[in-house]
């Protein structure tokens, strides 16, 4: 699947915080609090990067319910690889996403509310 905004994705991946967020959320969900610690940045910086990653389709969120009844979001990388290909016309960015079916998403959502 080719990215609609290849330049934007390349620019975003050039950012240390964005790369840290993707690395930390690859295969496991993380809260903004956890990502803030991993990035050694303030939460507003992390929220901005999270939003940019979501806008680019590289990060997805999941709603969680804590024992006190409050809701919060966790984030998971929704990308396996980003390929940059050079041709006579310029660069083409292709994003490989993990296979995900509705049953897996429903199971994760259900388990999050247990």
UniProtKB/TrEMBL annotation:
InterPro entries: WH-like_DNA-bd_sf, WH_DNA-bd_sf. This is Helix-turn-helix domain-containing protein. It comes from Halobaculum magnesiiphilum.
